[in-house]
Design brief:
Keywords: Coiled coil. It is a single chain. By secondary structure, the protein is mainly alpha-helical. It has a domain of 120 residues. Strands 1-3-2 form a three-stranded antiparallel sheet, with helices on both faces. A hairpin with a 5-residue loop joins strand 2 and strand 3.
Length: 295
């Protein structure tokens, strides 16, 4: 009977050695399944015990274990410093220990690269900023130089106008002095018989000298003070300045061929002694008329 049972076991390929219990039969879990279930249960309990679920909890956890300085800023350098001691904790597997140390070392290296990039960025910003300020200063200096150049040009133009005006005034004064000197010499020659001339005639001569000097104070003025009969003098004295200007312009048109210059009277001022001061639009025309002996 025993030999028959042994022969049956060999036929069905049983590998169970003699003296050992046969594997359990039915639907019960195996040893490997029970071990896996136990491991998963432990992990679940561990996850339930974990309280670090956000940034604030992570900070509190590290500070409670004195792994970081309380209140200090969290940087790659400080976190790598906290990670290195964890790799020395007893009971940690060699693979996990090497992984933690590798992460810590790489974090230190990343911190160096980040710090170098930050330093380079700051240096670049400091280099660009003075360049922008220098360009702005150059533009301001160009604008100031342009304003100075324009102001200098205006001052030169104004000085030229002033000098030209002074030259014309000096020329007019010189002509006036010459005319007065000539008139006084002629008057003195005519009055060599002095006792015959009365005081009224002398006063009239002084008035004429004054009128000539006044007429020559401006290069564009012309004094008409020639002896006229009573009727003509009265007629001129009764005319308005506008009519005097119109008549003078008609006369200028008539003699324009002789003078070979175009001119126009712009104003007329009657004097108390019967003379008239005409002001022309051109000093050249006034000079030409004064120098024409026939007029």
């Amino acid at each position: 009977m025993a030999s028959t049972k042994t022969t049956f076991n060999k036929k069905i390929g049983s590998s169970t050695p003699q003296g050992s219990s046969p594997p359990p039969t039915g639907g019960g879990p195996t040893t490997a399944t029970r071990a896996r279930t136990k491991e998963l249960g432990q992990k679940e309990k561990t996850l339930q015990k974990m309280r670090v679920r956000d940034v604030q909890m992570a900070k509190e956890c590290l500070e409670a274990q004195n792994m970081v300085i309380v209140g200090d800023q969290y940087t790659i350098q400080s976190l790598s410093t906290a990670l290195l001691p964890l790799s020395q904790t007893a009971g940690v597997k060699a693979t996990l220990m090497d992984s933690m140390r590798a992460v810590a070392i790489l974090m230190v290296e990343a911190a160096k690269v980040t710090e170098s990039e930050e330093v380079a960025r700051r240096i670049t910003e400091q280099m660009v900023l003075p360049t922008d300020q220098l360009e702005s200063t150059i533009e301001q200096m160009k604008a100031i130089a342009k304003e100075i150049h324009q102001a200098t040009k205006e001052m030169r133009d104004e000085r030229s106008k002033t000098l030209k005006g002074l030259a014309e005034a000096m020329s007019a004064l010189s002509k006036s002095a010459t005319a007065v000197s000539t008139y006084m010499a002629v008057t003195a020659a005519g009055h060599q018989g002095g006792p015959q001339q009365n005081q009224k005639a002398l006063a009239s001569d002084l008035m004429r000298i004054s009128m000539i000097a006044r007429g020559n104070t401006k290069a564009c003025q012309l004094l008409i003070n020639a002896p006229l009969d009573d009727s003509s003098t009265d007629a001129l004295a009764n005319l308005e300045p506008a009519i005097l200007v119109a008549k003078a312009n008609l006369a200028l048109e008539a003699i324009s061929n002789i003078l070979q210059i175009k001119a126009m009277v712009v104003s007329a001022n009657k004097l108390r002694n019967g003379g008239i001061i005409y002001e022309l639009d051109s000093a050249t025309a006034a000079t030409a008329i004064r120098e024409e002996e026939e007029l």
